[in-house]
Model the fold of this input.
Amino acid sequence: MKNKLIYIFAVLTVTAGCSYYSFSGALPGHIKTAAVPLFENETVETGIVEDLTDAIESAIIRDGSMKLAGEFQADAVVQGTIVDVIDEADTFSKSEQADQFKIRILADVEFYDRVKNDVIWEEKRMEGWARYDAGGGGGDSEPVSRDDAIQEALSMLAKEIIDNTVAGW
Done:
């Protein structure tokens, strides 16, 4: 009998604890659509703002919390500036030559509520990164080229932006 009471108490405790959990994110209820105008570009990388825009739009579609809309029809806008693209040696051979590089893409980002005319969140120097092989050919899990690494870093950055937007953490 005592074991049954302990079991029932445990089930009730777990159930009660779970009842406070919310699956809804931090996205305000009135925001149903978002626009992603081209970011500003403070780097020498060409085409990077177009690629980031595409990556953010794809992340919005995948997430499904919002639909895409034109900038002046949208409830909210994801906007920002790519402030830096950094290539740095990441791993070295025994002869101290770089085997792999790490590319880091940094952006200042803002999520703006057009309905309430207010900034919901902003973050300086958000980062996406990836590694690429110094010789242009990669291993099984690494990008083959710097261009591939840029795309992977932009995807990571876009995911981080959308995670900030819909989850709020």
